[in-house]
Amino acid sequence: MDIIPAIDLKDGHCVRLRQGRADAVTIYSEDPVAMAQHWEQQGAGRLHVVDLDGAFVGRPVHREVVARIVAAVKIPVQFGGGLRTDAAIQDMLDVGVSRVVLGTRASTEPEDLARLARRFGDRVAVGIDARNGKVQVRGWVEMTDRDATALAVTVAGAGVKTLIYTDTATDGMLVGPNLEGVFALCRVAACDVIASGGIASADDVRRLRDLHLPNLVGVIVGKALYERRVTVKELKDALQG
Fold it and tell me: What value does the mean pLDDT take over residues 202-219?
């Protein structure tokens, strides 16, 4: 598994939201580019950048910030937030991100995923954000009645190579990952899966490792890194233990 630091962008700052709530924001840096360089220097092999404002309004807002991040680091940058059109996807790929992550669009237009997978190949991934097993969309402000595992089957069947599964109830809470949810989604998804939400310690990463899921290829970590509860090195060492 890869350890993937998260960089969430809001109003030009690097922030974290508690359970995705826009009214529960903590600013960790006013310089997202410097933060990206910091995580690269700490040993991260990939970055996960989310345009929170973009997710709420339905179009990328931080294009220029992302462009500066991509130019400042040598590691791949995957990006999500507000990618509701083909033009928006292509534009962010042109900026230089290695992979775009579709969330709301994948849930509301699942019939279009096969076409997108053919057009963009492994440069498109799908983010499945769920609470109590049900998918949330539009910046997590809308709950659907769609099961996360059912959507995972649809996404993988469309030819998408990578899923990012976030348990929104644990995100930013430092309570540990939803192991049951990760296990269930990995078992039904015939593609690579990256887990996100709740990581607080190296022990949490070990528990994910010990699920022995061959398609669990990465874990996104945010608040625990920003609050210095654990380092990138400690998390990487935990995977090798």
Answer: 98
